[in-house]
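Quick one:
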Amino acid sequence: MGLRKTIGWHVWRYRVRAGGGVCTSQGIRMQTRHPQVTDAVAYSLYRERYESHEMRVLGDKIRPDDVLLELGCGMGFIGIACAKKLASGRLVGVEANAELISLIEENYALNGLEIELIHGAISDTPGEVEIDFADDFRYSGVGIPGAVRTVKVPAVLLPELLEKYQPSGMVLDVEGAEVRVLDEGVDLSSVRFIAVEVHADRTGDAAISRMVAALFGHGFVLDVVSTSTPVLFFYRPEAA
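Output:
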């Protein structure tokens, strides 16, 4: 680690500790004092580099009248960035990691925002999903090597969410499950845009290609300019 980075690291640790663990990143207040928030995540927040691809992709895409469905909330950072642009109470989140639920709620409260939060794992079949959890929440999912524990989580079905909430926008970071739930059979008629992080190391390129083809079949196009790999942005031209 170079001298400048070392100094920055210690300055960060002092400031975060002095603030009770709360770090402000890109105008968003986040609690970093949590067992699942590693130093690497907290330092990325401090340097305003956390979730940089998603932030670039979403940019000015959110409208105040949108209803947003976020699948895979993490610690709540991207959802909060979106919720700041929405009318109150128009964001629904799904998160599989039960240990993150209270942290997400705290982070929303720190920013004076609301979220309707559902604990569960997005799935294409009902019942339960076995999720492998790592010490760092970013590296959890199905079939993760080196996981510290495996937990059965309630399955959440995308068709039911779409029917209930009629979202106009979707943000997905579900560690490979995106290729199973975004298919030709799901009703996406209410949705005008989708930002989805793909995980080629877990799904393979062929599965991602089938997902993209399914979205094209639904009338979406890929916004090549906005896309910032591995986050792909799709929209309906007539609703842009």
